């Protein structure tokens, strides 16, 4: 019955009555006008509170157990299990850096720029083998085949026609595994010189002389000129003066 009263704190009689106290009968009881006024104010405040709470209910705010309003997205752990699953820093002072300096993720070999030292062999290791201490590791260079031989040596000889340093050619040929293709070095050099100038042929003669005994043997040189004589008909197609030269 108190809520159904008017929202106005005073009725018309109370406004015109001055300071004289008036009483109203409710359910057979006479109640002072001041008590009725306080009841109206309280009822009006309750209605405003209900309207405000219903309007803010869609905003996602929630009230904790302590009566504090929390913003959306903040979860307050209410059990010890919830606190354990919370991955945020408990002190609230985390710097946001990656774990272990960025070396603790999946598929990570270590921190950037890290250099690993040579691992020492442990004699007590059950997989230790005495023979592995006496192993000598060498770089194996595969021998050149005929196709790779011409592709590799042609630019070396052409550069020699420019600088004329036989020692440089000798050092480069020693780094290659010529294998059974050693005798082909003079063959290729003479074939390229026939297509060039007279100065190139003179330089080729000096190159073969300097390589003999270091890179190629005398037997290899003899075998190379035998092959040149057999291939003379083909050389004439590119160099018509090949037989005289």
UniProtKB/TrEMBL annotation:
Ranges of Gly residues composition bias in the record: 99-110
Keywords assigned by UniProt, alphabetized: Cytoplasm, Nucleus, Repeat, RNA-binding
Gene3D superfamilies recorded: 1.25.40.180
Residue ranges, compositional bias (Basic residues): 43-52
Domain MI as annotated: residue spans: 148-245
GO biological process, one term: negative regulation of DNA-templated transcription
Localization terms from the record: Cytoplasm; Nucleus
Keyword match RNA-binding: yes
Pfam family for this entry, one: MA3
GO molecular function annotation: RNA binding
Residues spanning the membrane: none
PROSITE patterns xrefs: MI
SMART domains named among the record's database cross-references: MA3
GO CC terms, sorted: cytosol; nucleus
Region (Disordered), start-end ranges: 1-111
Stored SUPFAM superfamilies: ARM repeat
Family: Belongs to the PDCD4 family.
Protein's name in the database: Programmed cell death protein 4
Native species: Nyctibius bracteatus (Rufous potoo)
């Amino acid at each position: 019955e108190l809520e159904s009263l008017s929202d106005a704190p005073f009725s018309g009689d109370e406004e015109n009555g001055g300071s004289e106290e008036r009483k109203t009968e409710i359910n057979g009881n006479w109640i002072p006008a001041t008590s009725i006024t306080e009841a109206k104010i309280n009822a009006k405040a309750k209605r405003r509170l209900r309207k405000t709470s219903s309007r803010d209910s869609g905003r996602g705010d929630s009230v904790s157990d302590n009566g504090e309003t929390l913003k959306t997205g903040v979860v307050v752990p209410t059990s010890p299990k919830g606190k354990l699953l919370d991955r945020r820093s408990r002190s609230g002072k985390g710097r946001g850096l990656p774990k272990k300096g960025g070396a603790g993720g999946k598929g990570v070999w270590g921190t950037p720029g890290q250099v690993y030292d040579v691992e020492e062999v442990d004699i007590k290791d059950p997989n230790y083998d005495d023979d592995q201490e006496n192993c000598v590791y060498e770089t194996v260079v595969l021998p050149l085949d005929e196709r790779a031989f011409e592709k590799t040596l042609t630019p070396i000889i052409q550069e020699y026609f420019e600088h004329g340093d036989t020692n440089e050619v000798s050092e480069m040929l020693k780094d290659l595994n010529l294998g059974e293709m050693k005798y082909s070095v003079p063959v290729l050099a003479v074939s390229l010189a026939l297509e060039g100038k007279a100065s190139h042929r003179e330089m080729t003669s000096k190159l073969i002389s300097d390589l003999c005994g270091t890179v190629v043997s005398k037997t290899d040189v003899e075998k190379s000129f035998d092959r040149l004589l057999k291939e003379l008909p083909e050389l004439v197609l590119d160099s018509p003066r090949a037989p005289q030269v």
